[in-house]
Amino acid sequence: MYLCQDLQASDFFKLRTYICSMTEDLNIIAGTKAEQYESLLPQIKGLLEGEPDLIANLANVVAALKEQFGWLWIGFYLVKPAFADASAGKENELVLAPFQGPVACTRIKKGRGVCGSSWEKAQTLIVPDVEKFPGHIACSSLSKSEIVVPVIRNDEVIAVLDVDSERLNHFDETDQNYLEQIVELIKFPLPLSGGTGTK
Predict the structure, then answer these.
(1) DSSP string computed for 10-32
(2) How far apart are CA 151 and CA 154, in angstroms?
(3) I need a surface site. Which of 47, 60, 96, 146 has the fewest CB within 10 A?
(4) How many of the other CB atoms lie within 10 Å of CB of 193?
């Protein structure tokens, strides 16, 4: 990987400026949960500003949240056709997108587990104890509690943000409030490759 000082300004000025402007570290703070989110929100806005690539933006959002909160797992699932070559009319499912944490379930059907249920209901779900959630999908035996936030554009769920913790009852309305704000910051190209979700 090139370091900022290795690039020649004559041919790579724009690239150099872009790369060097992205080398700042996040400012990780202690404090209440709300204070941590309040510190992180403008930093996430800065990471997203001017970057059109969805995968890059999803990756940076999950990295920033993982760095600040140290959750077991955080990542996105995108609503896509069940198979890459699916013809029109095939059912959609959630397909794994950028995440941080242990390996994860790759595809989740609508209505299955916390993610599929959040997609189906088009609402944020907070699960204090995943063992008590009917049909919970155990991608990791370490997960004890979970929050899933749907990404809604044009009245359709097009993705979900999934967060898992090793602690019971880890998530609350504060997480819901700020995570819903964060997913609203992300620009999703519409339609996503292969189609979007359902209303």
Answers:
(1) HHHHHHHHHHHHT-PPP----S-
(2) 10
(3) 96
(4) 12
Q: How far apart are CA 147 and CA 172, in angstroms?
A: 8
Give the pLDDT band (50/70/90) at residue 11: very low
Residue pLDDT, tens place only, 72-118: 999 999 999 887 555 555 789 999 999 999 999 999 999 999 999 99
For the chain, give the number of residues: 199
Instruction: Give the strand pairing for 92-100 and 73-81.
Output: antiparallel
What is the reported pTM? 0.82
Token couple for 83: 């198979």
Rounded Cα distance between 63 and 70, Å, is 10
Q: The tokens of 39 are what?
A: 């510190």
